[in-house]
Amino acid sequence: MLSLDRALKDRRLQGLIGTVTAYGSLLCHYDPAVTSADRLQEVIREFEGRPSTSFPLAPIVDVPTLYDGPDLADVAMATNLPPAQVIDRHADREYLVYCVGFAPGFTYCGELPPELAVPRKASPRRSVPAGSVAIAGRQTGIYAVESPGGWNLIGRTDLRLFDPAADPPARFKPGDRLRFVPVL
Amino acid sequence: MIEVISGGRWTTIQDRGRPGRERFGIPPGGFADWFAAAVANRLVGNHRDAALLECTASGPSLRFDSDGMVAVTGAHAAGEDGWITRVMTRGSALAIGAIGAGLRTYVAVRGGIEVPIVLGSRSYCQRGAFGGGFGRPLAQGDRLTVGALIDGEPLATAWPADHRLPMGSPWEVRVIGGPHADAFDGFALQRLTAVACRVTPELDRMGVRLDTPSLRLRGDEITTVPMSAGAIQVTSAGQLIVGLADHPTTGGYPVIATVITADLPLLAQARPGDTVRFREVDLTEAERARRRLTDWLDPDG
Questions:
Q1: pLDDT digits (tens, 9 = 90+) for B225-242
Q2: What is the ipTM of this complex?
Q3: Which of A96, A102, A146, A163 to mutate to test the interface with B (most CBs of B within 10 A)?
Q4: Is the CB of residue A33 less than 8 Å away from at least one CB of chain B?
């Protein structure tokens, strides 16, 4: 997906307003006054079956994390692990950013070790603070702005993930790598 | 300057939005009813990028510190006839009042509302709480600066009635199938287009939730996918969530169909309790329908 995304960007196609990738999907926003779905499909088909280009690995970004989330105890209970073990296992690995989406700067990463996989909360919170570090299924993520959310909150970071005045406005992009570093 | 005497229920500054930044999780934003807003700008002779006021459910009261011109379009406003220009003299006031049928009324001022551009747009983004000058809806005491985004003379006559969209329930909304039609049984879309959907009170600029009482349709959670405006997600509880201008850029439920651009204004005007009926069309008809509206706006374009 990342490879196709870059290839499309490099082609600078007329009428292609933007692309969005998430896991195994790529969405094209286009201006129908300039191009057409048929035309774009034709271009995308050219890449079918071609081996994807490999990219140099992105450097690993440290995300300082205070593990004091309101759901840490519940996660510990659900996983049958002491909270300290939940923290160790969450922090003890590199994650790949699969997607930035849902809300501005929200960063979806994977994969979580299987023993930390817990379902989303039965009823989502109306408001999750910016900087919350959360888990759901085999995913971990960081809320970049205050928003509603159904993931389990295990910690928080001071790292600013979204800044409308910055270029780019989001700290991470798909393909980036990060690791959570526990702080006291 | 324009002084906000009262902000109304939920009035925000919007322009054509900031499409192309969805990859950062930033919704395209901009006018929810893009057609009515474009007409308002056209009436007062504004550039199409000019920012205006989007009023929801009830509108603001504004006092003009200098002479100006406004146009009110979209949902019917109790205090204003609409779809025609009105000259405002220094010291005069404009009171939009209660709104309906329809939900959103647009107030364009000749020259546009001048606020700083954030991420390519003057629009207020609810989820990110940025843009729109104040990073929030209008409040009493706010002062608005009139800009200079003028593109021509104002229109001398009212916007023709046969060049407006229907305004009121039931809303007939056209969709194209998919992209996740295969997540449902083969007749799911036919069944969806055969029933009346009811608009729930859960609606805002991000989206509208619809109940389909007589329809047993279920969407199982899928791996996160990108979403576009108009995408109709089906939740595991069988509710429909249709994305509007500030829609989340990704979602986790399958999309049974997508509302065509030409009919997004209709959904943006639907009120809680209203009825929506979907009708399936193909891409050719979707593009023709959009073209019809853009031709009304710009017959020479």
A1: 999 999 999 988 889 999
A2: 0.89
A3: A102
A4: yes
